Amino acid sequence: MKNETSQNLHEGHRKRLREKFMAGKQSFKDHDLLELLLGYSIARKDTNELAHTLINRFSSLSGVLNADPELLSTVDGVGEKTACFLSLVGYVSRVSVEKKMDKKALLNIADAKEQIVGLFDGYDHEVFYMIFLNTKNKVTGYSKIDSNKKDSVSLDFNELTKGLITSKPSAVIIAHNHFTNFPYPSKEDDEATKKIYTLLMLHNVSFYDHIIVGKKEVYSYFYDNKLQSIKEEINNKLSF
Question: How far apart, in Å, are the Cα atoms of 205 and each of 35, 75, 167?
Fold first, then answer.
């Protein structure tokens, strides 16, 4: 009888939570959203405490949804099914952002910065994107490199070359993220930008910008005139 009463209480709470969500999504906090999500994977159990535990462990709701499933599974109360479910929700969210961006033309660098920031939402490590544009500056595809490292991405130039050959873009914007408030480029970022510019020259592809997304600010090689300096440096070397 006790288990049946407890089950009824949980079902009643989940129903009220669903009704609250449908009535006003804006009032929901991260742990409320996660609790509601967990209810679709974990039956007949109070998931409020688990929601708080996961957000504390992974820093935010986005951190939970983008966490490695194996790490999620190490949290008491999260089984393989629930870890897969949460990862699936995070993955679908990222794909939807990419698909939404596919439909828009990036008319200027400011527009590009605004659209690109969303690609990095929720990641707890560095990720690299090469974004392909056609002659009308519409996004036609991506090459994404994810080394699953906190502070670096190991670029695979063979993969980038395959992406260029497959997509045949007119122009490219590259972007990656830093976990600092003000993401000023490192020497490694400068060297990678030089190598990518050289690669793009070989394929006759324009290089619009290298954008670095930080926690509070977004850095643009184009706006800082750093990209132009790099292009001039490479062009001068090749002219000799």
Answer: 47, 46, 11
Q: How far are the Cα atoms of 1, 128, 208, 232 from residue 223, in angstroms, in the given order?
A: 68, 20, 11, 16
CATH topology of domain 104-239: Cytidine Deaminase; domain 2 (3.40.140)
Question: Nearest 5°: CA angle at 56, between 93 and 214?
Answer: 55
- DSSP annotation of 56 reads H
For 183-213, write each residue's pLDDT tens digit.
999 999 999 999 999 999 999 999 999 999 9
% of the chain with per-residue pLDDT over 70: 82
Question: Which tokens go with 97?
Answer: 């952002």
Domain ranges of the chain: 2-95, 104-239
Per-residue DSSP letter, 133: E
Cβ count near 80 (within 10 Å):
11
Token representation of residue 200: 């793009």
